[in-house]
Amino acid sequence: MFCPRCGRKLEKAPPTTCGACGYALFVNARPTGSLIVHEDGRFLALRRAREPQAGLWETPGGFCDGWEEPAAAAVREGREELGVEVTLGDFVGMYIGSYAFQGELLPVLDCFYLATLDGARVTLDPDESSEMAWFPLDQPPKLAFETMDKAIRDAALRLGT
User: Fold this and answer.
1) pLDDT tens digits for 52-80?
2) Where do transmembrane segments lie in this chain (predicted)?
3) Do the domain assignments include residue 15?
């Protein structure tokens, strides 16, 4: 591992400080914005079309762009993955998780929001999802990431299902 500022080899993995230039490196969680689209005690799940966890069910969502608030990222991801506008509801919670990417296990800070569809027909992005289904909030399938399991449980409690 090398210092991103001066290029010098680091003495140890982050968190550390570069001995050459003094640059402090940390392992920071990457924020996400995710949706729990719900209706009549059910939530919308998408089957992942790509790794990691291809083939498992997930909630719509993704990483925040630079300087993007998690709520804005959740709405954007809804538009990109579902092809519709969503109405953002209450904040469900933040959960620390992990995401395997480019040979690394990255820490993530997953931010979940309740949401509803605005009556439009969902059109999945085939690069992201191979199918969709509605599941009872109190009986979710195995989800791709532990943070999703926790968020669905908390959403079910919040919504009284």
Assistant:
1) 999 999 999 999 999 999 999 999 999 99
2) none
3) no
Q: Please indicate, yes or no, if residue 3 is contained in any of the structural domains.
A: no
**Predicted pLDDT of residue 22:** 97
Length of the chain: 161
Q: Is residue 10 part of a domain?
A: no
Residue among 92, 99, 114 nearest 48 (CA): 99
- 59 occurs within a structural domain: yes
Count of structural domains within the chain: 1
Q: 98-134 pLDDT, tens per residue?
A: 999 999 999 999 999 999 997 879 999 999 999 999 9
Global confidence as pTM: 0.93
Got the DSSP string for 101-133?
ETTEEEEEEEEEEEEEE-SPPP---TTTEEEEE
Element (H, E) at 99: strand 86-101
| CATH code for the domain of 53 | 3.90.79.10
pLDDT in tens, 77-97: 999 999 999 999 999 999 999
CA distances from 19 to 6, 11, 27, 115 (A): 10, 8, 18, 47
- Look-up of token digits 């790794």: 51
Name residue 42's amino acid: R
